[in-house]
Amino acid sequence: MNLRIKDVAEAAGVSVTTVSRVLSNNGPVRDTVRQRVLSAIEQLGYRPNAAARRLRSGDTATIGLIVSDVRNPFFTEVSRAVEDAAYQQGLRVILCNTDENPEKEAMYLRLMEEERVTGVIYSPTHDAAQRFKAQHYDFPVVMIDRPGPAGSADAVVLDNRDASARLVEHLVEQGYRRIAGLFGNASTTGRERHEGLMDALRRHGLPAQAEFVDPNPDSAFVHVGVWLAGERETRPDAIVASNGLLLLGAYRAMHAWRARSATSTDDVALAGFDNDAWTDLVSPGVTVIAQPVYEIGKNAMQLLTQRLADPSMSTRTLVLPGELVIRGSTERRVLPVGD
């Protein structure tokens, strides 16, 4: 329930001005009246809207930034963009890292309430995104990378389905036909990228092989190693990883397999998401979807600022395109005789 100061005033049988004086401890209020107001606040569970109060006073405010994995370069760059924009506006930033852990996520959301933050920029876990309701919080929320239910909160996201489908289209054009995908199991992002891959494969009448895994390099290393150990006729000839950490683990698995196996994996392509620095430094370079990461953070901060200025405005979702960066890891496949 989204309580207002007017609700406290009605419950205590006093004016809104009196409640405001009690909350700010500014102005004369009789002790009996003060106690009545405090009792009403406790019974209703009312929390003052610190965001509006700080905005009116012009004091330096604080925003929360809750990310899924600060080790992921995607979130590192997003955090930098948010911090840069917040600093320009005189805002402080509390950075929290959930590790895709729902318990840590809930703890940090409670921390945001306790700190009376002005607003929160937030990349939720899949389950939290699905059940998100803005009225549960006293601060405005802007979601990044993973949106909540339609109309529930402002959001800045990548066009995940389109980006994933474009990777498949590129691989098909290069001659690859057994395309497998690794997708993070804790976010809506992984599911949307999975849907894009599956849609594109169906359009071409190609078989699908996909796994949802923990979104870290170790998980990818294990799963790709299993794929590569299969018979040549059945193993994937191309692998798509749905985030930079999975892509790194997949690359390591392919590198390790080449080093210890007499069977070459040169005919196995690799592509994925996130234009991390290493993807252009290894040989061959890795084909990726480059996300407009800094723009995601910058736009999220702009949406939050606009929401603070006008809380009644309709919610908005900004969907940004990714850029396909083609490198040597997906060179045209030379089919052996008989294939």
From TrEMBL:
Keyword Plastid in annotation: no
A Pfam family of this chain: LacI
GO function terms (MF aspect): DNA-binding transcription factor activity; transcription cis-regulatory region binding
Name of the featured protein: Transcriptional regulator, LacI family
Source domain of life: Bacteria
Record domain HTH lacI-type: where: 3-57
InterPro entries: HTH_LacI, Lambda_DNA-bd_dom_sf, Peripla_BP/Lac1_sug-bd_dom, Peripla_BP_I
Keyword annotations: DNA-binding, Transcription, Transcription regulation
